[in-house]
Amino acid sequence: MESIFDFLTSLTYTAFNIFWVVVAVLWVKSIFVITPQQHARVLETFGRYSGYRSAGLSIKLPWPLQIARRAFSLQTKQIALQLGVKSRDNAFVTMPISLQYRVTPSQIKAAFYELHNPEEQIESYVATEARAVAATKTFDQLYTDRDEFTRTVRESLDEAMHDYGYEIRAVLIDDPRPTAEMVSAFNEVLSSQRRLEAAQNDGEAEKIKRTKSAEASAMAMAITARGIAESRSIIAEGNAKALAAFREDTTLTDEDAMAFMMEINRLEALRDAAANGGRTVLVTGDGQSAALEAKALLAGLAGDAGIRSAPAPAAGPTPTLAVAQDAGANGRSGRHSEKGGDKEGEKKE
């Protein structure tokens, strides 16, 4: 019986010793602090901040005098957001924003104690600052001024988060993503602008075409006019020579010669008009009317050119062409009759 009691006493003593050994080991172990790389461990003495330990092996006061809190990461972290914003011109777009931040090594105490949920609270600050900046810019400026947008958001966030022990390393903003309705409206506007530009280009092309055509027509008309003027000058010169020849070689008066030339012109005009067929030519007047027109023309020119005029021919329906042919065929008899008349006049005197 005594042996059993001794055995139980010995077992109890051994267990008690083992317990104190374990406690002693754990108590000694609490003196050492192992901190991973790019991390820090905050030390609290009786629940109050008393410093931190960097990466590696370090010592502290044993528990419960001093405790080491969980490892606190000093690595750069990233937050990705799909943030809906409203521009100054009331356009609603989604801004893809990526934020990189880390704990400031000199402000580990603030970073550990100031913010309960750092990532969520930083997201709130990013959303507030990004919406405030976007409200000052138009939809187009959100695309064209992304660098300025990024710099403004980063500076505002860095200033706001500095007191909390965080440093904003970078703010990356991708192209804004408009809604499907805005994309459709924007494409329609672009299409309208392209159609307007195409219409303007077509109008300018048509304007240039018509301008060049008008210039070409004007040049052609000028050349034609010069040709007509030269041809008329040549015709007038030829007619003048023909009239002079008639006056020298025949007994025709200037009025008869002019009537003859006008009749020739009339017949040539009729010939040219009926050259290709399919036309109806109406001939008005007769030789006498042509002679009267010639007389009126000569009378108007008599004062300046000194052209002699003869008495008007006897009225009658004799065509100018017939007169011209008779005058050409009987020129000799006409001259004889003129000489006979002179002789009779001498006898009468």
Any descriptors?
349 residues; alpha+beta; Tetrahydropterin Synthase, Chain A; 4 domains; three-stranded antiparallel sheet; disordered C terminus
Can you offer a commentary on this structure?
60% of the residues lie in helices and 17% in strands. Strands 6, 7, 8 and 9 form a four-stranded antiparallel beta sheet that branches. A three-stranded antiparallel beta sheet has the order 3-2-5. The chain has four domains: 2-73, no CATH class; 77-178, 2-Layer Sandwich (Tetrahydropterin Synthase, Chain A), CATH 3.30.479; 192-249; 250-348, no CATH class. The protein is α+β, with helices and mostly antiparallel strands and 349 residues long. It is found in: Membrane.
In short:
With 349 residues, the chain is of the alpha+beta class.
What's the CATH architecture of the largest domain? 2-Layer Sandwich
Q: How helix-rich are the residues, as a percent range? A: 55-70%
Total number of helices: 10
The CATH class label of the largest domain is Alpha Beta
CATH topology-level fold name of the largest domain: Tetrahydropterin Synthase, Chain A
Distance between the termini: 215 Å
SS content category: alpha+beta
Number of domains: 4
State which percent range the strand residues make up.
15-25%
Tell me the total number of β-strands. 9
Shape call: rod-shaped
Secondary structure layout plus pairing:
Layout: H1 2-29, E1 32-35, E2 39-45, E3 48-53, E4 56-59, E5 66-73, E6 77-86, E7 92-103, H2 108-113, H3 118-134, H4 139-144, H5 146-162, E8 166-173, E9 177-178, H6 180-249, H7 254-273, H8 287-305, H9 320-329, H10 331-348
Antiparallel strand pairs: 1-4, 2-3, 2-5, 6-7, 7-8, 7-9
